[in-house]
Backbone:
């Protein structure tokens, strides 16, 4: 039996949930096609999607790029220990780095967890030695190279 995630009542009904599921599968689906699948008019679908956007339930529509198809073959997760007084400064600098795809402040007073994508191991090493290690406040870095991806968040499924 599969685990079913029950989202709290956020003023969305089963139709909104179905719209979100379909958009998650294909965010380029037209309002007309979505309406045909759900049994609503194009105008009703558009109104519901606009409402979901206004409520902040839909944050944005985006494109997911396959990194290996553009020559980015090394996917790495980093755990970065930072002196507490430098946490915000380090986080801001890392957030500006092109290679960093996600960055989180984790439990503990000064731990950052981030993901980065690089062309190759040499590019990753250069990022570590020229950018990350020399940052003021960085105490330690632990990194793990991704071997195989089984599932990626890419937006929450309902």
Residues:
């Amino acid at each position: 039996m599969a685990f079913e995630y029950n989202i709290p009542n956020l003023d969305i009904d089963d139709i909104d949930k179905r719209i979100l599921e379909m958009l998650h599968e294909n965010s380029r689906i037209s309002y007309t096609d979505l309406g045909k699948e759900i049994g609503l008019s194009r105008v009703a679908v558009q109104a519901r999607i606009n409402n979901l956007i206004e409520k902040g339930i839909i944050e944005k529509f985006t494109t997911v790029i396959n990194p290996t198809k553009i020559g980015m073959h090394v996917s790495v997760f980093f755990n970065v220990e930072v002196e507490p007084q430098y946490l915000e400064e380090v986080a801001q600098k890392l957030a500006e780095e092109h290679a960093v795809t996600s960055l989180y402040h984790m439990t503990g007073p000064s731990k950052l967890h981030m993901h980065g994508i690089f062309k190759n191991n040499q590019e990753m090493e250069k990022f570590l030695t020229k950018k990350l290690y020399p940052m003021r406040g960085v105490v330690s870095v632990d990194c793990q190279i991704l071997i195989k991806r089984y599932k990626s968040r890419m937006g929450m499924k309902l």
